[in-house]
Amino acid sequence: MNRESLKIRSILLVVLLVLVMAIGIGRLYSLQVVHGEEYLRQSESKLTRSVTLSAPRGEILDRNGRTMVSNRTSFMIEFDAVSWRKVESGTRAELIWELIALCNANGQKHIDTLPVSDTVPFTYTYVKDGGTEAEGNLSAYIKKRKYDAEISADDLISNMAERYEVPETYTKEQVRAIVGVRYEMEIRQFSTTVPFLFAEDIDVSLVTKIQERNRLFSCVRITVEPIRQYQTRYAAHLLGRVGNIYAEEYDELKEKGYTRNDQIGKDGMERILEDWLRGMDGTQTIETTTGGRITNVVSEVAPISGKECTLTIDVAVQEAAEKALAEIIPKLRREGQTNPRWGGNNAKGGAVVAIDVKTGGVLAMASNPTYDLTKFTENYNAMLEDPLKPMVNRAIAAYFPPGSTFKPVTALAALEAGTITPYTAIVDKGIYTYYKGYQPRCDIYKTYGKTHGSVNVSDSLKVSCNYFFYDVGRIVGINAITETAEKFGFGVKTELGLPGELSGQVAGYETRKKAGGIWYDGDTLGAAIGQSDTLVTPLQLANYTAMLATRGVQYKPYLLESVRDADTNDILYTATPEVAREATYKESYWDAVLGGMYRAAHEPDGTAYSKFKDYPIKIGAKTGSAQAPGGSHALFIAFAPFDDPEIAVAVVVENGGQGSRVTEVAKQVFDAYFFDKSNQSLTQDENLLVQ
């Protein structure tokens, strides 16, 4: 190739390169200068992301259709992981503190479950080895970070401040607040798929202030979520609550589509009905500006609400039961102090259960002391340390000797065995002297130095004569009593479904043997009057009363009446009453026992006569006083109407003294059931909200 040809080719190559560069520069000029603002606007509106549309939980209604639990829409503050990663690590503490300060200035609390006090000297706020979520989460965090298991709260905060690069310019209290948020991000597994929930149920004014500072809070999003709203201050133990998923729960729940930020039913019906109440979240694909402003909704899959669940509970009856319990306990304490013979000066808590005799549906289940669902989290530690244990549902998770409410069992055992007839009379001599080493006294003899004289089975139930049942129990024997008690469901769980239900136990050879003891013949005297080793829950006691009312048919108690799809109005489930057990006795035996219970309420000298002598509805009733440390428990069972029973009620007050002193509680329950039908309005407070 000659020189001239090479020169021409070189010139052409240079021209070509200059031309390409000119075109590139021209294109860049067009993009950045001529059309720069236009393309910038387009780029800012083309950030696409997918957001979750939370599904509201299903509502919970009472048997009459009154709403007990619903939802309302509220604003939430969330952090977006993609935008959060763009925030320089050195400025993250500043962003968090500014957001905390803004919330504080508006009286808004943010979510902070780090169990360390807010002020110095720092201390742990959980009850050690209490098995709480807070303790479990912190233990897992400390282990993961390889901190000393016994690290002090002060040292923990210092280590966390170093890890999260919190500048020393902040006060110790500010540092504690900042690391609390970073801690929450970690335990909630903050990621691109799981946004971090910073605060919930915020007001509109705070929303506006955050949006006005959207450049500072570039990673913060305001979302709209449904929040649980409790329409009644009652039935806390029964309804339960919702809460964040525990770390140990998540491994199982994530397989069902839950995220770490989801809330689930933690106890009560919220937990039992989780599969019904839980909705199906929707999704929305949106285009936003870099500042977070939504410019377009690309697509949307609407959320599906949870199902509407109707309970067997009657809110009016539930309210009456809780109010009556709350009134009677301090009253018993006051009166017991002025009249020691009545007892009750040490009355503590109690429970009331009301059951639909014809189906087994639970009409009311009250436990005292109770708690406020709307303040569960803030009051948790105080409740955990309260010696009266307000979080325990005494209706199912506490048991008591049944005392004289058990006497119908002994009567039926003796009648069935032929030990007595309905007309057999025994003379009450005050002191039962059959055994030389153990000679118990009839209560009327201990109190007044008198006896009941000659009484038959109906008489003895009317006046609650211990002497009669000592003799009958001794003759019929413990095996017959044990077998009869088991026929009425004592000693086994009712399988209601609520967490924590106890089975109780029935006195007898086997029970004593399991406890490492020996059964002596004299022990049968106590067992015959509901003492000794027999222990029952208030729910079992109510179910037993219902079985007496039906003359031998006991239904399995239940709480869920029906489930409805609120969107389609389709009924998805309807409860069918289920017979749990039956006991067959001669009508004359039932007449003798139930007749005694009728006379206890409606004849002079009857143990419940003072409260029900003028009651317009005839009832069957039995009082009971069961000896216990701290003073006798007060018990009362009743059903009504006597001739065509609809409702059975059991009342128990711990250390409440004489059973006749708590008859007022059952009366108020009956009043609500029979006479308050015209007043079906639900007690409501405007701001009863639970997250």
Quick gist of this model?
By secondary structure, the chain is of the alpha+beta class.
Question: How would you describe what is shown here?
Answer:
By secondary structure, the protein is an alpha+beta fold. 39% of the residues lie in helices and 18% in strands. Strands 2, 3, 4, 5, 10, 16, 17 and 22 form an 8-stranded mixed sheet that branches. Helix 16 (407-417) crosses helix 19 (466-476) and helix 16 crosses helix 20. The longest helix is centred in the first third of the chain and has 32 residues, at 3-34.
Poorly predicted ranges:
678-691
- Give the overall average pLDDT: 88
Q: How many strands in all?
A: 22
Query: Roughly what fraction of the amino acids lie in strands?
Result: 15-25%
**Main beta sheet:** 8 strands, mixed
| Tally of contiguous helical segments | 26
- The gyration radius over C-alpha positions equals 35 Å
Overall 3D geometry? elongated
Question: End-to-end distance, in Å?
Answer: 86 Å
Helix content: 25-40%
Helix and strand content put the structural class at: alpha+beta
Question: What is the strand and helix layout of this fold?
Answer:
Layout: H1 3-34, H2 36-44, E1 47-53, E2 60-61, E3 67-79, H3 81-85, H4 92-105, H5 133-144, H6 153-163, H7 172-187, E4 196-202, H8 204-212, E5 220-230, H9 236-239, E6 242-244, H10 247-253, E7 263-265, H11 268-272, H12 274-277, E8 282-288, E9 294-301, E10 308-311, H13 315-338, E11 350-356, E12 362-368, H14 376-385, H15 394-397, H16 407-417, E13 426-428, H17 443-448, E14 453-455, H18 457-463, H19 466-476, H20 478-487, H21 509-514, H22 523-528, H23 538-549, E15 553-555, E16 560-564, E17 571-574, E18 579-582, H24 587-602, H25 609-612, E19 620-626, E20 633-640, E21 647-653, H26 663-675, E22 689-690
Parallel strand pairs: 2-10
Antiparallel strand pairs: 1-8, 2-3, 3-4, 3-5, 5-22, 6-7, 8-9, 10-16, 11-12, 11-21, 13-14, 15-18, 16-17, 19-20, 20-21
